Amino acid sequence: MKAPIEFYFDFSSPYGYLASTRIDALAAKHGRSVSWRPILLGPAFKAMGTPILAHTPLKGDYSMRDFPRSARFHGIAYNQPEQFPVSTLAAARVFYWLKARNEKMAITFAKTVFQAFFVDGINISEPERVISLAVEIGCREGEVRAALEDQAVKDRTKAEVEGALAKGIFGSPYIVVDGEPFWGMDRLDQVERWLEKPF
Amino acid sequence: MKAPIEFYFDFSSPYGYLASTRIDALAAKHGRSVSWRPILLGPAFKAMGTPILAHTPLKGDYSMRDFPRSARFHGIAYNQPEQFPVSTLAAARVFYWLKARNEKMAITFAKTVFQAFFVDGINISEPERVISLAVEIGCREGEVRAALEDQAVKDRTKAEVEGALAKGIFGSPYIVVDGEPFWGMDRLDQVERWLEKPF
Predict the structure, then answer these.
(1) CA-based nearest distance B168→chain A, Å
(2) Which of B57, B137, B144, B170 is most enclosed, with most CB atoms within 10 A?
(3) What's the ipTM?
């Protein structure tokens, strides 16, 4: 049994969203599963000493043009969120709470969150919207609400985010295949080749 | 006659080098020529408020791994320069001096500089090495030496670098096709599709 591909992303990352629509099929083609790992990019930008992408002069403007164009290039639905980027802490907490109970359901939740933010114009920074999305895929509202306030869930999410940063993960998507790191939607071609044979 | 593709790059940029080995053939396939435009990335990083790539925590380490891997992926010779990154002012000046006399020769010079830096381990920040490379492709040593001291050549190079930054060009390679900007070696696939038909 080959190790799962590690797929790190921020729910507010356009390139993370684009990659999320491809990563499972790409992995399955090579007999791999995917370990989905939402992170928060804020601390990574702080560690790098750089402003966040959308707020970086020159590059930020370019990226707002590149997001929808890259989506069109890959044939993926995309509507630039008006509020952007946003905090994705609540979504990450619900994800990790769900993952401990049912990983498949957590992945379904992640896809639902991405779709809500990048297609349906839902502001996923609002805990109430996140709760609704979890309910939509079959969670009980009271349980989700309690999970969001649960210190153990908060701690686990923090540990995941800090653990990723400690491993040097600074962007989204960031994909690790058998220890080899690939950053960016535009590295999926290299990920695919690597899965065939490391080069 | 279709407009040439604008190809901006820094001679010290690994991804600029990788793209330089492909851009002419890609353009020719679509009946286009390429306007090669060396720039200096230092002022762009300053404008963006970010450290230069190789000196950025986390991302810098990753990039040192990605440079040679991307070269292998594309089947392009690559040896990581020991001195890196370096000032490319002298090379840019000789390029623009040559371009005013003979654009084809300027492009040959650019390819020679890239090969020297990224394959042969020559430190292209040293004016004497840049002069040797120009002589190698048929320039007269005295003329190159004089050009490097020529105020008009210095001014033209400065105008090119500042003009690019004023147009929002912040990275290398940065390719403009009929006004549409593409940043990165990993956007050559989108450049190609755009040349077929804007999307």
Answers:
(1) 6
(2) B170
(3) 0.94
